[in-house]
Description:
The complex is a heterodimer.
Chain A: H1 4-21, H2 27-46, H3 51-55, H4 58-68, H5 82-96, H6 99-131, E1 134-135, E2 143-144, H7 148-171, H8 177-207, E3 223-224, E4 227-228, E5 245-246, E6 265-266, E7 279-280, E8 283-284
Chain B: H1 3-21, E1 24-25, H2 26-35, H3 43-55, E2 59-64, E3 72-77, H4 79-110
Antiparallel strand pairs in B: 1-3, 2-3
Helix pairs in contact in B: 1-3, 1-4, 2-3
Amino acid sequence: xxxxxxxxxxxxxxxxxxxxxxxxxxxxxxxxxxxxxxxxxxxxxxxxxxxxxxxxxxxxxxxxxxxxxxxxxxxxxxxxxxxxxxxxxxxxxxxxxxxxxxxxxxxxxxxxxxxxxxxxxxxxxxxxxxxxxxxxxxxxxxxxxxxxxxxxxxxxxxxxxxxxxxxxxxxxxxxxxxxxxxxxxxxxxxxxxxxxxxxxxxxxxxxxxxxxxxxxxxxxxxxxxxxxxxxxxxxxxxxxxxxxxxxxxxxxxxxxxxxxxxxxxxxxxxxxxxxxxxxxxxxxxxxxxxxxxxxxxxxxxxxxxxxxxxxxxxx
Amino acid sequence: xxxxxxxxxxxxxxxxxxxxxxxxxxxxxxxxxxxxxxxxxxxxxxxxxxxxxxxxxxxxxxxxxxxxxxxxxxxxxxxxxxxxxxxxxxxxxxxxxxxxxxxxxxxxxxx
Lengths: 315, 111
């Protein structure tokens, strides 16, 4: 009869050999299969049986396990000699069985669902960045695909799809390995640009227009149904487009738009030389003109502003 | 006769039948199959079959902690598994009847 310690060592060695024969399987899948075998071997040993002797060579056991589980035949890389590959596999196996590595993998496995959630968002952020989509000004983390609602819906879909992919991978990963790898890479690559975008957008939303903040009081920007307003076109009583109209809010703050620096933007100045960022409509100089000139001062959207019939206010 | 070939095509049904009777974990299912007379059934075949049936949705699974060793993963049969078992049962009855008749005929002819 085998002692408990002897059985344990025997089981360990046998499992290591089986594990090496299944090295081409996804880690989760292999772990699931072997957890089942290990539990059974330990119980059989505890019951006083001597199971290892009846199991046959570990390579045959692994082949039978693989075939019964419907996983197909082993797909080993063709490079390198079989002996070298075996040595490498055993070495990798030794590493993965070290307590610290086992503990780290256990923690990683428990944290995986959190990564799946983040991954779903990051992939959507990557798509938004790649397609040059605009982002919500009030919620800088929310990309707009036509509207912010569509953006929110796309994020929900992305997160759910990422969770589903994670769960599928945990169950049966071999067919999805490359897809998961591609999605993970896209998500990882999106971390830095997404973080930079959110940080920058949050800062500009809170501080206001970055341009000449000392000359003109900054504002939060204007929104129309959640969409950023990029220009303002004031019209007179008689329906004419006005130029260089300066706008202020109820607190006396200059209403400015959080637009980025633009060398061609025409920014009027006050008599003291301060920039009037709240003068509308914003106009742009035509490139290559000297002196600089706005080619179409009245250009703008097609606006119908009928003459007002109400008598003008009197001072 | 080498019954391992027969087992190959019928192990799914045998495992489903055992689990349908009562939830069980890998070694438990193996032991019950052997007790039922399938002495030649292999360990790896049973564990692999359990995983495949589980992956196909015929079985559900849950983990029960054990003080004596690794946690045990119990398997139970799902509705899909019940349907699969009923189909296998019907197929087997038809097949065994046909083969029994054929073998009996053979015996009569050669006797």
